[in-house]
Amino acid sequence: MGSEVKKFELFFERERKKIEKKISRSLKNREPISLYEPGFYVMEEGGKRLRPLLVLMSVKAVGGKLSNAYNAAVAVEFLHNFTLVHDDIMDNAEKRRGKVTLHKKYDVNTAILAGDSLLSVAYEFLLKDCNGNSKKILEAFTKGLVDVCEGQSLDKEFEIRKDVLLNEYILMIQLKTAAMIEMCCKIGAILGNGSDKEIKALSSFGKNIGIAFQIQDDLLDITGNEIELGKFIGGDLVEGKKTYLFIKALEKAKGNARKKLLKVIQEKGIANHEISDYKDLYIQLGVLNEAKKEIKKYTNRALNAIKDLSSENRNHFIWLAELLINRNK
Amino acid sequence: MGSEVKKFELFFERERKKIEKKISRSLKNREPISLYEPGFYVMEEGGKRLRPLLVLMSVKAVGGKLSNAYNAAVAVEFLHNFTLVHDDIMDNAEKRRGKVTLHKKYDVNTAILAGDSLLSVAYEFLLKDCNGNSKKILEAFTKGLVDVCEGQSLDKEFEIRKDVLLNEYILMIQLKTAAMIEMCCKIGAILGNGSDKEIKALSSFGKNIGIAFQIQDDLLDITGNEIELGKFIGGDLVEGKKTYLFIKALEKAKGNARKKLLKVIQEKGIANHEISDYKDLYIQLGVLNEAKKEIKKYTNRALNAIKDLSSENRNHFIWLAELLINRNK
């Protein structure tokens, strides 16, 4: 599969550059500058452009023309960045991808409005690629938006709730993270004129890989490499986040171990020097392995969903799944 | 025209009630409650439902079926309320329609997210009425959203700029206020299967009446009745807002009068006891009459745009225009 991997990497890099170029042109010469300059600050050179690439890979997987989907690919990136800008305000985050967050660089009002505007431009771009099947595409896109708002609300709710269950957590990450990845695959498949079966298969791939991706994110917070990750290990524990690991640990722990975990909730986080202690607790309770099993479960579901794709296309998605799951950052 | 007026009033009241009922059901039983309860707080029993009614009047004007447009009518109200929630955060407003604003009742984060969610539900509702002509309707709706973001950004920009010109002001209110009224008429006309000429005519009605409506709003701040208006007179001057009246006054004033106006900009507003003094200045400079002339100009343009409608439909819009322009609140 060596030469195939090379091909996928080349596809990824070539298409990423096209997306980058299209994004960098997208807000040029638009007025008022007071609105589009902050928007551009967020959009330029940010991240891996994973969501647009999933749109394009899905178009390709059903035998469609990539040229019919570049605006839609840009649209999902605008939608994604809208969520990041508003989430960062809500989390009072200082940095995002190593850059000062928008509301810190400007102010909260500018960031609220620039976020809204990114969403408006997302729909504008999406509509450019809607020909004949507009309703279906816009329904999928809008469902992604509805879900991400619901997921974010659950996430905020869980910050203050003390009794979050594992199935509630899975629902939250499905809405907040996986639904948008599912949507990217879905609209790619629709834009590529895929059959209903293909649309369903790719949507299912997206949803399941999205859940796996988020649990992997939770796991990396404990097992990741600080240098590669670009942030310190154990941040979720310090912030008292109710991650997969934490909820699973609480489910399994008894006696003193349980008391120790409840303390994290009560005190809304732990001190830096306690991190290794809690990591040991996670290991004792076996939750790191449980998380790995869960990631594998959802990854297998994702790959199983696309078993009827051609072997080349399937391999392309397998390659992507590995990129996402075996990542260090 | 007496019996005709009665008929319009009955139409207005009957349809308003239907819209009200549909809105009150729209968010029921949706979860998470942490998201949809704040959204419902904003949507319930709020305002005249002018925008949904414009959608329905436009459907009717082109001979379409109202029953095909109730979801779209609700959608424009959701979109409108999304803008109000975010604008109120940006303005740090305490009250809206006599009710505590959302971000004051809950908090800023809840209001940001509830606003986003209202917008997501707006698209969801709109899509229910999109059959066959989805792209055109969604393009018009999305343009309304893009414009309102641009208009709001200009409005915030003008708060700190000292040299706002009258044509810039007109552009701002066109984007911030008129574009959405235009959009309501436009999507109504499209949903009713109007001809291109009819769609254009009703859009032009909406745009021009929207501009007239906003200048009327500026005028009422000085000439309105405090009790009917439900807020004190001269609030725009106290806040140092660059309204039509203020910009026009600055354009005309010389010598001491000009100095007095520049003081409003420098000091970002005036004291309550200075209001009557500035009202006198506006009268001396003749800007109240200029505003009335401008309102008449845009109202005439609006009515001229729909001159080819049937006399009953035209009268209905004339009745609405009078309701909007000869209002006291």
Walk me through this protein's architecture.
The structure is a homodimer of 329-residue chains. Chain A has 329 residues and is mostly helical. Chain A has 16 helices and two strands. A two-stranded antiparallel ribbon of chain A has the order 1-2. In chain A, helix 4 runs antiparallel to helix 8. The model of chain A has no long low-confidence stretch (mean pLDDT 95).
Name the shape of chain A in a single word: globular
Give the fraction of residues assigned to helices of chain A. over 70%
Query: Stretches of chain A where pLDDT falls below 50 for ≥5 residues?
Result: none
Number of strands of chain A: 2
Give Rg of chain A in angstroms: 20 Å
Strand order of the largest sheet of chain A: 1-2
**End-to-end gap of chain A:** 25 Å
Structural class of chain A: mainly alpha
How would you describe the oligomerization state of the chains in this entry?
A: homodimer
Average pLDDT figure of chain A: 95
Largest interface, per-chain counts?
A: A-B, 37 and 37 residues
- Helix count from the secondary structure assignment of chain A: 16
Strand content of chain A: under 5%
